[in-house]
Amino acid sequence: MRIERLAAISEIVSSIAIVATLAYLAVQTQQNTKTLQASARQASLDSELGLIYSMIENPVLYTGPLIELSDADYTEREVIQITMFEIASFRARENFWLQYQDGALAPEVWESYRSVLVDSILNFERTQKVWNIYVDQFDSGFAAEVNSLLVD
Hints:
Elements: H1 2-57, H2 60-66, H3 76-101, H4 107-119, H5 125-134, H6 140-151
């Protein structure tokens, strides 16, 4: 009778320990997810700031996509700079989209970057032409997302 009682008590203690371990792991998983999302937000911000600093250092990168001028209005070097900047902007957004797809970037953070894509980057005919030339070099899911934005 005594052994049965000890076995029952040890089974209860074991069950409590399992529940406590599962609760601990759930909390750790939530903390790790928050840390991963914070890290992804920081990396996204660093990328975005890099693009902004590029525009500060090379104002042609800002005026090129913003003002509808033809490539004839720029030097060959400026056309190359503007085109590469546009590709870098798409590549940064692709990375944000991939992080969002993987769950590392919260939906509201992706939405803020998506709105820049819609309101600024894709709002210009020249940038749309660059996209159409280089679209095959991007992730197919991201390309479908951008193409759907162009249709809208």
